[in-house]
Write the structure tokens for this entry.
Amino acid sequence: MKICDKIEDVRKQVKEWKKEGLTIGFVPTMGYLHEGHRSLMEAARKENDKVVVSIFVNPMQFGPTEDLDSYPRDLDKDAVLCEGVGVDLIFHPEPQEMYPEGFCSYVDMNGLTTELCGKTRPTHFRGVQTVVLKLFHIVTPDNAYFGQKDAQQLAVIRRMVKDLSLDVTIHGCPIVREEDGLAKSSRNTYLNEKERKAALILSQSLAVGKELIASGETDASRIKQAIADKIATEPLARIDYVDVVDFDTITPVDTISGSTLVAIAVYIGKTRLIDNFIL
Ligand code: PAF
């Protein structure tokens, strides 16, 4: 497995593979890899000749008061996990390599990014789209893999690929959970023991929403209220949002029909966690 920190080196390797007619699967990450990332890499491994993983804590997608500096990093451990899955190349650039002096071009979107996480993180998706487009240009993958835990991100990337006619197929992969139901996330590492227990309220409240829907409820406001009421039973939890939106357009819906995303963001202490399910 190769580890490259320069764009030019990735391009050289990818060109050689393409000359041989090999397909490339790509998993963009910010590192501190866990089972969720592993599932993306395994999907990429199964469906492509070569697998590239990027590990880059992208400063552009963090707001000024967010956790860029404290975001967990462990390249050595990540490399072991990648090697174990059979990844062929890790791209691990420095911020200066991705955003050299004078950088001033961005990818932005009018729809999809104003609801859910976009409300409290207004510049987040601009940072995600810009870095993902750059990474797509560098790696030129046939297939790229994203987790459904970041459902809004998945919808945004799908829209960007369609709108900008990018020649890559986007694969959304299911959420991977701890045994007790907590969705895997690099940010779970911020939680102390008490908070870790309290964080179960995310999956538990979504289960309440799911049950209600299974019992025939289609009114989005009643489903949101039931989820919010359950979250309110946990003293360490503070709701950022509980929303029901159309999964393709990320616009609020009044009634559940077609592909609907039920998504929540909840602060447990200072840690903001997200979770969701798609109908
Ligand atoms: O999901 C992530 O880890 C990041 O948002 C991504 C897609 C790697 C872009 O920095």
